[in-house]
Specification:
The chain is mostly helical. The chain is built from ten helices and two strands; from the N terminus they run H-H-H-H-H-H-H-H-H-H-E-E. Helices cover 72% and strands 5% of the residues. Helix 9 (174-211) packs antiparallel against helix 10.
């Protein structure tokens, strides 16, 4: 009973404790002290929902329809590039960098942005629906595992959003906000490029292997493992070697 709960907590924390697109957004809102509690609730509740869906078997459905993940990947990349552009523009305007100079954002637009960071990010589905769902179904008590995983998500986002207030004294300097927005622009752009470039490179590598009629069976898998990009694993489905992305920063 309790081992499953602890396993869920540690597995979830290990997956989400990295600064990616969603976490960077939560951190920034925490630094600005804008709708932090609402954002934490949305992020934690979304993770709990997706973890439950993974345990209930949604991961199998997603794997059967990879075009869904592909669509999310392109939509997410476009959204991240747009957000990166806005962050870069803010970083270039010192007059818009101090918390006192910036008007408080309205709640609903902020929540919609938070939902976009959550549900347009393929890494969220990989972490929660696929990985945590698969691990949970190997536990003695899968729903206790899910409860532990959801609890870790809630603890992480609470610490990230509310803990950022400790940095408030440094926010009176415009150079601090310039650095924050500049870093966010770089992170968002890098993640967007990873969403587009790495899977496309993997698809081309697999296609090259598939065209080589001299490579079959285990040999095809061995070659694919050599040319797939770092961060991918190889699985076989109906004799075709395909690349499957592993968990990434959120």
């Amino acid at each position: 009973m309790f081992p499953s709960l602890i396993a869920g907590f540690t597995a979830s924390l290990g997956l989400i404790a990295a600064i990616g697109a969603q976490n960077a957004f939560v951190l920034k809102q925490g630094l600005r002290r804008e709708h932090v509690l609402a954002i934490v609730v949305v992020c934690a509740a979304s993770d709990a929902l997706l973890i439950a869906a993974g345990i209930a078997g949604l991961g199998t459905l997603v794997q059967a329809h990879p075009q869904v993940v592909t669509g999310l990947r392109w939509a997410g990349a476009a959204f991240l590039l747009g957000y990166a552009f806005l962050a870069a523009r803010r970083a270039l305007k010192p007059s818009a960098l101090t918390a006192s100079d910036q008007p408080a954002a309205r709640l609903w637009p902020t929540l919609l942005t938070c939902l976009a960071f959550t549900y347009l990010n393929p890494h969220v589905y990989i972490d929660t629906v696929l990985l945590l769902g698969a691990i949970a179904n190997q536990q003695q008590s899968q729903w206790l595992f899910g409860l532990g995983a959801a609890a870790a998500s809630a603890v992480w986002f609470t610490a990230l959003g509310l803990g950022a207030r400790k940095l408030a004294p440094a926010l009176s300097r415009p150079v601090t906000w310039r650095f924050i927005d500049g870093a966010i622009a770089v992170i968002m752009t890098a993640i967007a490029m990873m969403l587009v470039v790495v899977p496309v490179a993997g698809d081309r590598a697999v296609a090259a292997v598939a065209k080589d009629e001299r490579v079959v069976g285990s040999s095809a898998k061995a070659v694919a493992q050599q040319i797939l990009p770092v961060g991918g694993v190889v699985e076989t489905n109906g004799g075709l070697t395909i690349g499957v992305p592993v968990a990434g920063d959120r």
